[in-house]
Design brief:
The protein is mostly beta strands. Helix content is 6%, strand content 36%.
Length: 143
């Protein structure tokens, strides 16, 4: 039997929580380095934006009826969000843009017993989009 040891470098994949404490000082650019101007420092800080985290429904849930509520955590400096309902093959079945952190999903095309996925992408002031990981759910039945 082959055993493997995994050593995490930083945070585990998908984690959005930073460690509570650190034993190392934050890295500081050297004068004249690539990230020494205020504009470049802002760009470096913008790269650290956390993705939205879908809180409702949870991954693997059985959604009993439509419409149902989809909720997620806000993204710092997010201007708005694009919500997508995806089929099992990744095709977009329903899509909506919003400035809030919750929407009502009222997709008529859901088939009982099938698996679907939800994804939320935040739009940042610089035009970049920060997508959430997809959350899967099974539709259980009534409209």
């Amino acid at each position: 039997m082959l055993l493997a040891t995994v050593v995490w470098q930083g945070l585990p994949p998908g984690s959005t929580d930073a460690p509570a404490t650190s034993n190392t000082a934050p890295a500081r650019p050297n004068p004249g380095s690539e990230a020494s101007s205020p504009r470049e420092r802002r760009a470096v800080q913008a790269d650290a934006v956390s993705a939205p985290h879908i809180t409702t429904p949870i991954d693997g849930a059985i959604v009993a009826a439509v419409p149902f509520e989809l909720a997620w955590t806000p993204v710092a400096h997010g201007l708005g969000y694009e919500v997508q309902l995806l089929g099992a093959a990744g095709e977009i079945l329903w899509q909506v843009a919003t400035e809030t952190t919750r929407v009502t999903v009222a997709a008529d095309a859901l088939v009982p017993g099938h698996t679907y996925y939800l994804r939320v992408a935040a739009t940042l002031p610089d035009g970049r989009r920060v997508p959430s990981p997809a959350v899967g759910f099974q539709f259980g039945g009534t409209r």
